[in-house]
Design a protein that fits this description.
This protein has 280 residues and is an alpha/beta fold. Helix content is 42%, strand content 16%. It contains 11 helices and 10 strands. It has helices at 20-28, 37-46, 61-73, 94-102, 115-122, 140-148, 166-177, 201-210, 233-244, 249-260, 264-276; strands spanning 5-8, 31-34, 53-55, 78-81, 107-110, 131-135, 157-161, 182-187, 195-200, 217-221. A 5-stranded parallel beta sheet has the order 3-2-4-1-5, sandwiched between helices. Strands 6-7-10-8-9 form a 5-stranded mixed beta sheet. Helix 7 runs antiparallel to helix 8 (201-210), helix 9 (233-244) packs antiparallel against helix 10 (249-260) and helix 9 crosses helix 11 (264-276). The chain binds S-adenosylmethionine (SAM). The site of S-adenosylmethionine has 23 residues, from strand 7, strand 8 and strand 10.
């Protein structure tokens, strides 16, 4: 009888996010297929788990996938992990899952942390639906085609990005979506410096020209007509209060934006519109 492939999610920063079931499955598995065996070894040692490890990553997945399949078919059970989060989500694993399914091998998921879902949960009221876009291609043409296909997307779009490519990606976003769309930066999730900051794309591009991007980011770009660059009611109400107390529109918008985690420019524009058309 064949064994089982378990897709085991691991923490994206905070080791406390490992699930009890993940620990049980890792302890019970005959072997663990890991994206980077050194990373897996550190995680497993932390939980005092000692199991044979094999590497399974993008560039060995064809040959290694066959070996893993053969071992599972001979009765061993395999836990598949990646460096962080859920395997097969912008990570190795999808091909192995397909191979096992085609071979009639049981595949079970052991869900847990996923950066995309964690990031979306921090954005607040930006709609119930989203699209997951993962990483943009390194290839310029595919990258532009991918973005062009999203111009009319009305749902918030979730992207993964590495810090060293963030500036170029923001420039591409501005070119595709314009400067006024709101983008959420969900950064360093579950770690010491976790934050989720909203800016317009124009503000974000300017901010990161001045500041070096650091850490891990999920970017959530609001959709066309989805969350227009209108300030959230709370942020605008707060800014109006500061303005009524005597702050300049610029200061009032900046303080309210900082305190509500909203982009500054829509609030500022709304204050200027108030000033141009005061209520009687
Ligand atoms: N499979 C993983 C998952 O389910 O979360 C994603 C793996 S993908 C190779 C790595 C990307 O996920 C990073 O470049 C970043 O965009 C995002 N990511 C991973 N951990 C993160 C964290 N702690 N905070 C923010 N983004 C994170």
């Amino acid at each position: 009888m064949s064994g089982t492939l378990y897709i085991v999610s691991t923490p994206i920063g905070n080791l406390g996010d490992i699930t009890l079931r993940a620990l049980d499955v890792l302890r019970a598995a005959d072997f663990i297929a890991a994206e980077d065996t050194r990373v897996a070894h550190r995680l497993l040692s932390h939980f005092d788990i000692h199991k044979p490890l094999v590497s399974y990553y993008e560039h060995n997945k064809l040959a290694r996938g066959d070996e893993i399949l053969a071992r599972i078919q001979s009765g061993e059970s395999c836990a598949l992990t990646t460096d962080a989060g859920t395997p097969a989500i912008s990570d190795p694993g999808a091909l192995l899952v397909s191979q096992c399914r085609e071979a009639g091998i049981p595949v079970q998921t052991v869900p847990g942390a996923c950066a995309a879902v964690a990031a979306f949960s921090l954005c607040g009221n930006i709609g119930a639906r989203f699209t997951f876009e993962g990483f943009l291609s390194m290839n310029k043409v595919s990258r532009r085609e991918h973005l062009a296909s999203l111009v009319h997307e009305t749902r918030p779009m979730i992207f993964y990005e590495a810090p060293h490519k963030l500036r170029a990606t923001l420039d591409d976003f501005v070119r595709t979506f314009g400067e006024d769309r709101v983008v959420y930066f969900a950064r360093e999730l579950t770690k010491l410096h976790e934050e989720c900051v909203a800016r317009t794309l124009g503000e974000a591009a300017a901010f990161y020209r001045e500041h070096e991007p650091r850490g891990e980011y999920v970017l959530i770009v609001t959709g066309a007509d989805g969350t227009p660059a209108a300030p959230a009611v709370d942020a605008l109400a707060l800014a109006r209060r500061y303005a009524a107390e005597g702050a300049s529109p610029s200061d009032a918008a900046r303080r309210a934006a900082r305190e509500t985690n909203m982009p500054r420019s829509p609030i500022y524009r709304a204050l200027l519109a108030d000033a141009a058309d005061p209520e009687p």
